[in-house]
Input
Amino acid sequence: RLCELLDNAGLGWRKLAELAGAEKRFKCSAEELEMCSLKVLEPRGSPTQCLLQLLAERDCTLRYLLGCLERMGHEQACRVLSSAVQDMIRIMVQPESQVVVEGTQVSLTCCATGPPGLTYQWFCGRQEVPGATSPELVIDTATPAGQPEWYICRVNCGATFTFSRWAHVQVEKSSSPSSASGYCPTMAGLQILRQPQPCCLAEGDTLALECRAIGNPPPQYQWFRNRRPVEGAQAPQLQVKLVTTAERGSYSCRVFNLFHEVWSQEVDVEIGEGPRQTSVTSYLLCCQAGVSHSIATPPSTIPAATDKVALLIGNMHYLHHKQLQAPIVDVHALSALLRQLDFKVVSLLDLCKAEMQMAVDEFLLLLDKGVYAGLLYYAGHGYENFGNSFMVPTDAPSAYTSEHCLCVQWVLREMQQRHTGLNIFLLDMCRKRNLNDDVIPQVGTLEVTANIVFGYATCADAEAYELSQGELSNGIFVTFLKRWLLEDEKITVLLDKVAEDMGTLEITRGRQALELRSNLSERRALTDPICPPGQDESSARNLQWAKAHVLPESQHLYFDCGVTVQLGFAAEFSNIMIIYTRVVAAPKDITKCEARLTDIPEELDVDLKCTNKESPEELGSPLVPVWSLGCPSCCLYSRICGLQKLRQELAFTVCLQYRYQGMDDFVEERQRVNVGRPLIAKLNLR
Output
């Protein structure tokens, strides 16, 4: 249809090629334009189709193409393309229902992606909210508490539109019994307003538990029974019809948002045929709840950790070996869980041999006699020869040997010399024999200690597998490990439970099974609390760790034409950073402008397909939903990987392209920006 409309001499394909060429990478040469024009000599040839093919090969987006047609003033072609891409309007962030305290402000957010020119309109019930035409709706709840108000957002692009989910806002009086006493409306984080209550039911009854919270961003929920997640229970209310004794147990709710997490009180649900009778189990539960302290475990029996440190390495993009998919998801999932357990976490992707060695050296600097637990997780290619395990770096040659890899037993020996209280190795890699390597490495004598735990994703001489779930991939090991990692169990007991779960997976039965090796003599758990000693070495350790987690501060760039550009930053891993640019102010006579990153240091080997994208999703990272919520809208996003490779401070150019009203040509201004050494680059792993 576009070919029919644009294969003419007026507002046709040549004008489209001219406007598209304002972006240098889409500019067609004279030879290419001649090739397009010669298509009219073919029976079914189309110059427009030839041009569109050229633009497609250069990664031109439908959004950019539609913008060019709009600048041409070709309304009919715009309508055709708009109708063809109407399903491109996708709501990425849905508004969430909330319970709020009277007198506070609450924010509802609806963010969508799609063709250019998206507009928003909020409704309360069936009535438009006057002036509510932005992705965020701020509601003043100073009105008296009462029935919940229902809100919905419509997202338009011309005549095409879609609606968000309904969200209801329930306003409660601050003095109501269901509200948390002493709640301050300005308090940061999350606040639970309504706690679940214990209950005693008969078989066949309906179980109904409720947990209500307030927070900004809006809270999300996950219910747990006996400290294990209840599948599909991700709403404020948990309802189970026709209960049986299988539903009895202790229930709690995890309430969380992007920045915070709180837990509800744990309540007991008893289910039986008659009145509940006191039992030993009930008595012990009462003791745990603090009703009786006569047989409580003395506090001194709980091991006290002065610090907990973790190094997580995921290698995916190998130069001479099969590419992997799971490490990015697995490392990120474990990072989030370990941080909940108060671990200091350094997470790195795609390291060469020298970088892996330096990363381990920096990790060892964080360990000393005062550190309770040191945890090393590795996901990537690996092998095992003569009882020694080897981690394969991304630059390993096709016929690699131990000379090209990092030996896990060497790392263990170095950790022992730091006198760490607990040494944990979680190795998510294959353990097949390497036939190219017949050398037995001499790693030195290991000390006789009772504090070592090895969790292998698979058995000796076996492979470890990835589990594909749509666009994401998880390693089999981490798929089950993350279910148990937060459990207050001795680490060996926890890994035993992971092994039992892995054994239930049919597709890997007989092919992959977790292997646990340990000489741990005490009850040591990842959940053991930290008791900082307040000594100099602790301060030095904190400073060393903090170095690898400092992002550049957001800044504003001021250009001569009067345009102001915001430069912002977000982190995916300790060595991967997102940079976004946003035009925040422009003179009225400038009709279009955008700020792009150029001249990024060559040693970072940045993929141009991952720079200056109009939406976070175009960066191709499966972790976009994690960091993109904190970024403003209408930005250009760039993903900068391999920060450990920086030889000098990170400097790049911000190129501003803008056009004045009534002019066809774009004007360009440039500013050089230096953001120092961000994240892991501060540690000079090179």
Q: What stands out?
A: The chain is about 20% helix and 30% strand. The first strand starts at residue 90 and ends at 93. The domain at 549-682 is CATH 2.60.40.3360 (Immunoglobulin-like). Confidence is low (pLDDT under 50) at residues 175-188, 273-301.
